[in-house]
């Protein structure tokens, strides 16, 4: 796990006699959940609320995610907010500029699971720089494994909110993200074409169907990731319920 090297506290003698006023205490708030749970909507609501209260805000998203727009965070239902699209968080301070960074009160991070330097960035921003960091992202991938380093932030956080979606099959609360294809890479960026939120029973049933279909498709040498395969799998999943 990453360590926050520059957050080592100064000892008491370093603080005594310092001409710098004590910094405002930072905060870290984490919003997690499956896809289609309203995580980005919740993040934007909180960032807007901070801005309306007169605080200086900035939003960051991963440059890997170009689904809806390059320079905006956009919810699944089309609400937009301008943002910095970056390959990593370390470059944020340089990109935004030292003066602008100093003036920032609140930093929002969308799809935080894509940033490998998340831990160090959040640690420094909140502990050393007095920023409020509000981040949203997937806690688990399509196999329900920890996604990226997002869960490493939990011990640093002031609050953690896990949102739920609606199961696309039965309408009950959905906690998991189900991938409708047989593709196996962890990062496969897509929307409702590739993923759906599901409850526990439908996750378990769906995984069984997808795994069976994958074996059959592989044995007949059908190429992966094709649209026809998607709809076949989706139909198979839904019929199995
Ligand atoms: Zn269900």
For the biggest sheet, the summary is:
6 strands, parallel
Strand content: 15-25%
How do the helices and strands follow one another from N- to C-terminus? HEHEEEEHHEHEEEEEEHH
Number of domains: 2
Total DSSP helices: 7
Q: Report the average pLDDT across residues.
A: 82
Total count of strands? 12
Shape: elongated
Instruction: Please name the fourth-level CATH homologous superfamily of the largest domain.
Output: P-loop containing nucleotide triphosphate hydrolases
Q: Indicate the structural class.
A: alpha/beta
Question: For this entry, what is the oligomeric state of its chains?
Answer: single chain
CATH-defined topology of the largest domain: Rossmann fold
Gyration radius, to the nearest Å? 21 Å
The end-to-end distance, rounded to whole angstroms, is 40 Å
Description:
The chain has a 6-stranded parallel beta sheet. Strands 3-4 form a two-stranded antiparallel ribbon. The chain has 241 residues and is an alpha/beta fold. The chain has helices at 12-15, 39-52, 90-96, 98-103, 118-128, 200-219, 227-239, and strands at residues 27-33, 57-62, 72-74, 80-82, 84-86, 106-110, 132-138, 159-162, 165-166, 173-174, 176-179, 195-198. A hairpin with a 6-residue loop joins strand 9 (165-166) and strand 10 (173-174). Residues 5-18 and 223-233 have low confidence and may be disordered. The chain is elongated. Helix 6 (200-219) packs across helix 7 (227-239). Helices cover 31% and strands 21% of the residues. It has 2 domains: 23-163, P-loop containing nucleotide triphosphate hydrolases (Rossmann fold); 173-239, no CATH class. The chain binds zinc ion. Zinc ion (ZN) is lined by residues 167, 169-170, 172, 198-199, 201-202. One of its GO terms (biological process) is DNA biosynthetic process. InterPro entries: P-loop_NTPase, Thymidine_kinase, Thymidine_kinase_CS. Keywords: ATP-binding, DNA synthesis, Kinase, Metal-binding, Nucleotide-binding, Transferase, Zinc. Pfam families: TK. This is Thymidine kinase.
């Amino acid at each position: 796990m990453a360590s926050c090297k520059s957050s080592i506290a100064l000892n008491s003698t370093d603080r005594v006699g310092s001409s710098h006023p004590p910094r405002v205490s930072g905060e870290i708030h984490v919003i997690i959940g499956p896809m289609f749970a309203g995580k980005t909507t919740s993040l934007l609501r909180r960032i807007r609320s901070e801005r309306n209260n007169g605080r200086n805000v900035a939003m960051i998203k991963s440059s890997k995610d170009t689904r809806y727009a390059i320079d905006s965070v956009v919810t699944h239902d089309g609400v937009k907010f301008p943002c910095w699209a970056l390959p990593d968080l370390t470059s944020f301070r340089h990109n935004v500029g030292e003066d602008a960074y100093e003036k920032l009160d609140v930093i929002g991070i969308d799809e935080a699971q894509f940033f490998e330097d998340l831990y160090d960035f959040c640690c420094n921003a909140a502990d050393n720089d007095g920023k409020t960091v509000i981040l949203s992202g997937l806690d688990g991938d399509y196999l329900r494994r920890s996604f990226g380093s997002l869960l490493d932030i939990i011990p640093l956080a002031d609050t953690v909110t896990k949102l739920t979606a609606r199961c696309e099959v039965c309408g009950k609360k959905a906690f998991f993200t189900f991938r409708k294809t047989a593709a196996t890479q962890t990062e496969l960026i897509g929307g409702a074409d590739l993923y759906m939120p599901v409850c526990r029973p439908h996750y378990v049933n769906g995984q069984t169907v997808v795994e069976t279909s994958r074996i059959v498709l592989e044995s007949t040498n059908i190429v992966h990731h094709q649209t026809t395969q998607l709809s076949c799998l989706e139909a198979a999943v839904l019929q199995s319920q």
